């Protein structure tokens, strides 16, 4: 059974209204292979840099939109450090060291 355009629009609008704080910065965790010096905090626009015991670096903090996220990922690429994962985390989860996520396959 096919949906009418008004039914489809209602579904799309309902999905959008459930998105948390659309237009607000979202917290992200970006995990990269290797340790990154804390001197890079400003270059990574104030994200918190956590050096993990396993040799990875976790960049955590708010990102205003997808364009800003892509800019951060470009900076990781420019450093030549392997990207392990990128995770959008909910409020209060940004401090979790091991979020549930889909890893970036290399």
What would a concise description of this structure say?
By secondary structure, the chain is an alpha+beta fold.
Verbal overview:
The protein has 106 residues and is of the alpha+beta class. 26% of the residues lie in helices and 25% in strands. The protein has one domain: Alpha-Beta Plaits (2-Layer Sandwich). β2 and β3 form a beta hairpin. The longest helix is centred in the N-terminal third of the chain and has 14 residues. The C terminus is likely disordered.
Level of helix content?
25-40%
Shape assignment: globular
Order of helices and strands: HEEEHE
Any idea how many domains?
1
CATH secondary-structure class: Alpha Beta
**Estimated share of beta-strand residues:** 25-35%
Instruction: Tell me what the CATH architecture is.
Output: 2-Layer Sandwich
Quote the average pLDDT. Answer: 76
- CATH level-3 fold name: Alpha-Beta Plaits
Tell me the Rg in angstroms: 17 Å
Spatial order of the strands in the main sheet? 2-3-1-4
Instruction: Report the total helices.
Output: 2
Secondary structure: elements and pairs:
Elements: H1 5-18, E1 26-33, E2 48-51, E3 56-63, H2 66-79, E4 83-89
Antiparallel strand pairs: 1-3, 1-4, 2-3
């Amino acid at each position: 059974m096919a949906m009418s355009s008004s039914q489809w629009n209602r579904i799309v609008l309902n999905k959008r209204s459930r998105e948390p704080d659309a237009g607000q910065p979202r917290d992200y965790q970006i995990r990269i292979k290797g340790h990154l010096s804390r001197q890079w905090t400003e270059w990574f626009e104030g994200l918190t840099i956590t050096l993990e015991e396993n040799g990875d670096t976790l960049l955590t903090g708010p990102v205003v939109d997808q364009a800003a996220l892509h800019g951060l990922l470009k900076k990781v690429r420019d450093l030549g450090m392997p990207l392990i994962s990128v995770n959008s985390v909910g409020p209060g989860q940004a401090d979790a060291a091991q979020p549930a996520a889909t890893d970036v396959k290399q």
